[in-house]
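ARCHIVE CARD
CATEGORY: sequence design from structure
SOURCE FIELD: tokenized fold
FIELD CONTENT:
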């Protein structure tokens, strides 16, 4: 079978040129006589991979020097548990804004280690999420260690389309499904973290961008391996990093730079999303997206068919048309098209053509 257009939410599509390059380098990475995943993380070749990838990520996001960049194991959820341990004193208050599943998960992960308050929540009476809570409506408490939110909710397809301006807060942002999709101003955040398996690379890696002064916080008693500062001081080599994932992330960063950087990717992303939402809205109710227009995600587009009985025919036909992984998350149902950086405009065009054709046949 040929490669299909891949709308998976994560692990998600990787750029084909990255996979081809990894394939070409698989057996012998640059005359090492072994692949990038078979060499020591402390050897010269891998240190070069690590340094180059950090340099390129810094260039892509204009990360200032007073921010450390960590490449760690364990995914975004582990970081959700480590946030209060690294940033909050025992029992200190921390604020959370919840606009979907992952914000709620972050609350659960923090609760054992901090006095957590949800200061804004967009959950509706029937348990759904279909909007953000605008920054102006947040009411942070006094004396908190930080304020956490999720700029893009991967499952519900809800995104803050602008950035917070809260200079008095240490804003912590779970950017797992939005990092690298559009330009950001890193200075607005104390901590940005992102599981890699959307716009960065394969799973198994999480990137943490943290303002260096926050690394000086005592946090709470914890095992050495859970100290961000120790990871920062050792170049993320306190223990063995996920070398293959890190190497592939490095290739993705090079690819992103070749595309013209994040600003250029954002233009393509904005157009892809606009085209897909227009197709949904223009279907006369055959397809429906119930997210408020001011909060519609560029990266994850959930949509329902007017008749749920058509869902399995839709998915079977999509697969036959070379369009994979469109089934929505069980919490929301219906379909979801994740249209990350590595999903080309042609893939979205093919999806739209298929949706129109399906509607004609079943409308
Ligand atoms: C926004 C967001 N946060 C957190 C997670 C959890 O990430 P992980 O599976 O890497 O722990 C995900 C997973 O897809 C996500 O989309």
């Amino acid at each position: 079978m040929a490669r299909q257009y891949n709308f998976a939410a994560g692990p998600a599509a990787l750029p084909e040129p990255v996979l081809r390059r990894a394939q070409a380098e698989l057996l012998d990475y640059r005359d090492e006589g072994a692949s990038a995943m078979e060499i020591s993380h402390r050897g010269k070749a891998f240190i070069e991979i690590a340094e180059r990838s950090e340099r390129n990520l810094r260039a892509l996001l204009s990360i200032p020097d007073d921010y450390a960049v960590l490449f760690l194991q364990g995914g975004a959820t582990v970081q959700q548990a480590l946030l209060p341990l690294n940033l909050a004193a025992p029992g200190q208050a921390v604020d959370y804004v919840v606009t979907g599943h992952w914000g709620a998960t972050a609350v659960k992960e923090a609760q054992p280690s901090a006095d957590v308050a949800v200061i804004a929540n967009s959950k509706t009476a029937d348990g759904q999420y279909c909007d953000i809570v605008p920054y102006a409506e947040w009411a942070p408490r006094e004396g908190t260690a930080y304020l956490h939110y999720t700029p893009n909710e991967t499952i519900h397809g809800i995104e803050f389309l602008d950035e917070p301006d809260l200079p008095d807060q240490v804003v912590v942002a779970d950017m797992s499904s939005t990092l690298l999709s559009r330009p950001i101003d890193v200075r607005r955040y104390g901590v940005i973290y992102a599981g890699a398996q959307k716009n960065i690379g394969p799973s198994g890696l999480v990137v943490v961008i943290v303002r260096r002064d926050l690394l000086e916080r005592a946090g709470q008693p914890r095992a050495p391996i859970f100290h961000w500062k120790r990871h920062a001081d050792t170049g993320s080599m306190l223990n063995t990093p996920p070398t293959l994932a890190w190497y592939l992330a490095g290739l993705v960063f090079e690819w992103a730079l070749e595309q013209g950087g994040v600003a250029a990717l954002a233009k393509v992303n904005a157009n892809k999303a606009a085209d897909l939402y227009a197709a949904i809205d223009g279907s006369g109710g055959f397809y429906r997206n119930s997210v408020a227009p001011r909060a519609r995600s560029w990266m994850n587009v959930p949509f329902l068919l007017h008749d749920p009985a058509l869902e399995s025919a839709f998915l079977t036909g999509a697969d036959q048309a070379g369009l994979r992984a469109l089934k929505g998350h069980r919490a929301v149902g219906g379909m979801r098209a994740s249209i990350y950086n590595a999903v080309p405009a042609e893939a979205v065009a093919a999806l739209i053509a298929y949706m129109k054709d399906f509607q004609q046949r079943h409308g």
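CARD ANNOTATION: The first strand starts at residue 5 and ends at 6. The radius of gyration is 21 Å.
SHELF: design records, drawer C
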